[in-house]
Design a protein that fits this description.
eight-stranded mixed β-sheet; about 40% helix; 2 domains; disordered C terminus; Rossmann fold; alpha/beta
Length: about 290
């Protein structure tokens, strides 16, 4: 009888953990309120095909120029949307870039899917990059990518798998999914062993990737293009020490680290720091390199 009760209790615990994990892989959907028009930019709503027969919503902001030129894809973080990185659009547009701001699956106005994950963010980013490169007004040799938080990890993951990005900017990336999840376990009072460990193994099985293979502290070693890591000094969600750890794991001097004032989502000196980001990307503008 005691054995049966223990079995029932174990099954109930595992079922509860499974529900908790799947809830954690289903971000709250937040729809955009502002558009590029609110910051004085002309734009088009676009639809981009991605994996599993799903579609992404995005804003394409053409550059003020004739002929082909450079472009930047911007990808938000967990629970965000295209509006998240809208503050970057004005300065980058003024510098001559076309921009594509997209919603990852299960976010904003993009299609729902069975779950969201950093590898799926990277898949969506890859399709957004390919969409840009097919446009007649975009130089396919001058496409860069910017990501924030989970989107930052996705940018590094995508860049570690392809050699056709001219530069990437990673804002507030965490070192490793396990490190991030262990902080979450601690905040919820969940012991790492055995419960947390089992949850992590189950998440790896669901998303189809080992955490070591997708961790930014590891993918940065395989990124071939110039990379700028940006992190807020007061970030309490992902400590700035993790940015230093990613930077220390780099395989070349093409990776730069810029620590700025601000938290995980709010950068108090954003206006002052934006020229650094713009200058970094402009340095790899094909038109300027060839001049």
């Amino acid at each position: 009888m005691i054995g049966l009760l223990l079995l029932i209790a174990t099954i109930g615990l595992l079922a509860g953990l499974r529900r908790a994990i799947h809830r954690s892989l289903a971000p709250e959907r937040v729809i955009e309120v502002r558009t590029p028009a609110d910051v004085g930019l002309h734009y088009q709503d676009v639809t981009i095909s991605t994996e599993n027969g799903k579609s992404l919503f995005g804003w394409f902001i053409p550059a003020n120029r004739q002929g082909r030129g450079p472009a930047v894809v911007a990808l938000h973080g967990w629970g965000g949307n295209a509006e998240t990185l809208l503050p970057l659009a004005g300065p980058l547009h003024e510098a001559g870039f076309a921009l594509l701001l997209v919603d990852a699956r299960c976010h904003g106005k993009s299609d729902e899917d069975s779950f969201a994950s950093m590898p799926r963010f990277a898949e969506d980013l890859g399709h957004a990059i390919d969409w840009l490169k097919r446009r007649e007004d975009i130089d396919p040799c001058a496409v860069a990518a910017i990501g924030h938080s989970v989107g930052a990890g996705a940018v590094l993951l995508a860049a570690s798998r392809r050699a056709d990005l001219v530069a990437v900017v990673s804002i507030a990336a965490f070192t490793h999914p396990v490190t991030m999840m262990r902080r979450w376990f601690a905040s919820k009072g969940i012991p790492y062993r055995p419960i947390g460990w089992l949850m992590l193994r189950y998440v790896e099985w669901v998303i189809g990737h080992r955490f070591d293979d997708i961790a930014p502290v590891n993918t940065i070693q395989r990124v071939a293009c110039p990379t700028l890591l940006v992190h807020g000094a007061e970030d309490s969600i992902v400590p700035v020490s993790e940015a230093h750890a990613i930077h220390a794991a780099r395989s070349s001097d093409q990776v730069q680290l810029k620590v700025v004032a601000g938290s995980h989502d709010d950068y108090t000196d954003l206006d002052r720091e934006l020229p650094v980001l713009v200058e970094f990307l402009s340095r790899f503008d094909v038109r300027q390199r060839d001049s």
